[in-house]
Amino acid sequence: MLALALLGAGLALLLVGAEALVRGASALAATWGVSPLTIGLTVVAFGTSAPEMAVSVGSILTERQDMALGNVVGSNIFNVLLILGVSALVSPLVVTRQLIRMEVPILIVVSLASLAMAWDGNVGRLEGLVLVLGLVAYTGFAIRQGRKEGNSQGAEEGAAPPNKLLQAAYIVAGLALLVLGAQWFVEGAE
Q: Is residue 152 pLDDT above 60, yes or no?
């Protein structure tokens, strides 16, 4: 019974933490002139993946590597097939040319590279470093492109600027809830 309580409480903290993180980071990114597409590709993607990352890191730290790998692979399959599929069933998705020309090929290349790295049954530190550096490079590129697009579109007129201190508090609170939620979730799942 305690395991189910930990699992449920951990999941709740992960959801609330991710929401706070996304809310704060999205508002800050908008004040810096980042376009909505780029906010979705970076800030929202990081925020909605933060619970998965927290659970995976928690799993690795407690030597439950299989849980971490299953979490990553299962999450990607779920996101691409179910969430994208259901969204398209509800309302057709409008896809920009930039998404098709840039992000889809990057997704395919990274997926194939990840498969190649894991083919021998082990993803080592060097391969992990390559993946993290690739993420940093992609994020920097996406933010740079998004700022160009955001600046060319101009700021929304009449919108009140968000309180940056409040948004930073959302980010910090979200991260704290993610860490605690991941600990509880991994304990309950195990």
A: no
